[in-house]
């Protein structure tokens, strides 16, 4: 697979993963702040279904990112490489189990102290992932911007 194709897969998967996480997080906040118990339950029960798209997208982002970065010692790539395990572990150890726990509790109408404790943990962990992914996106765009300016031919000036 060419580097260009890998870059496009990385970008598309990254945008999808980021958009899903932001959607899950925002939907949770909005439903908790302004919605009914029924709305909260609907959001909490929908999130595990959204993971059917999120988990493969995250795997694609990680795989393509490691392929694109290789063993580069570049500081920007090293920073992205350090953030990814935190994002992945946060997702696997906190966010995925929390989503299933909250979906089960909300589906049963059990909005108790345990529900809200896990909900708080999920919101904090989600905010951490959104922040780290935002930094990775920023750094990725900065790297491609530098690469585009190096490969773009200088504009010729037109004489009047």
Notes on the protein architecture:
The structure is a single chain. It is built from four helices and no strands. With 160 residues, the protein is mostly helical. It has one domain (3-143): Four Helix Bundle (Hemerythrin (Met), subunit A) (Up-down Bundle).
Structural class: mainly alpha
Distance between the termini: 46 Å
Query: H/E element string?
Result: HHHH
State the domain count.
1
Secondary structure elements and their pairing?
Layout: H1 3-34, H2 37-69, H3 75-107, H4 113-151
Could you provide a short overview of the structure?
The protein has 160 residues and is mainly alpha-helical. The protein has helices spanning 3-34, 37-69, 75-107, 113-151.
Features:
single chain; 0% strand; 160 residues; mainly alpha; Four Helix Bundle (Hemerythrin (Met), subunit A)
